[in-house]
Amino acid sequence: MVNQSEKVIQKYTYFLDDGTPVRATLNVTFKEYKTVQQQLQEINFQSSDKTKRMVFRDGDSLWFLASLEYGDPELWRAIAELELPPLS
Predict the structure, then answer these.
(1) Do the domain assignments include residue 46?
(2) What is the pLDDT of residue 48?
(3) In this structure, are residues 31 and 3 in contact, taking their beta carbons and an 8 Å threshold?
(4) Could you say which of 6, 7, 13, 81 would form a disulfide bridge with 31 (CB–CB 3.0 to 4.6 Å)?
(5) CB half-sphere exposure, 8, CA atoms < 13 A
(6) SS (H, E, C) 3-71
(7) Does 33 lie in the same domain as 9?
(8) Which conformational region is residue 71 in: left (phi greater than 0), alpha (psi within -120 to 50 degrees), or beta?
(9) Structural domain span for residue 66
(10) pLDDT the model gives residue 42
(11) Domain-embedded: residue 59
(12) pLDDT tens column, 4-55
């Protein structure tokens, strides 16, 4: 990894009587550069698949599922409105 200064802004804030600057503030921006190998090591190769399977039993309800999955039982309509494949 290499850091390189990208931008420097210098502002003088205090001067001697003869005009010589004796105090300044600097704003410095750095840019980080990584090799291809370093970038590849940081990639998360895990699947983002969020597929879930749940078996409904007698007495289970959509509001119960909404409560489990979304933390809000009132969101049961979002589940009911899904176009799910027919049960085989």
Answers:
(1) no
(2) 67
(3) yes
(4) 6
(5) 6
(6) EEEEEEEEEEEEECCCCCEEEEEEEEEEEEECCHHHHHHHCCCCCCCCCCCCCCCCCCCHHHHHHHHHC
(7) yes
(8) left
(9) 53-82
(10) 86
(11) yes
(12) 888 999 999 999 999 999 999 999 998 888 888 888 888 877 766 677 777 8
pLDDT bin (cut points 50, 70, 90) of residue 88 is low
Report phi then psi at 22, rounded to 5: -125, -10
Tens-place pLDDT, residues 62-84: 899 899 888 999 998 988 888 77
The pair of three-digit structure tokens given for residue 55, joined into one six-digit string: 């078996």
19: left (phi over 0), alpha (psi -120 to 50) or beta: left
Identity of the residue numbered 56: F
- Both structure tokens of 86: 């027919």
**How far is the C-alpha of 48 from the C-alpha of 58, rounded, in Å?**
32
pTM: 0.38
Is 27 part of a structural domain of the chain? Answer: yes
Q: In this structure, what DSSP letter does residue 82 have? A: S
pLDDT at 51: 76
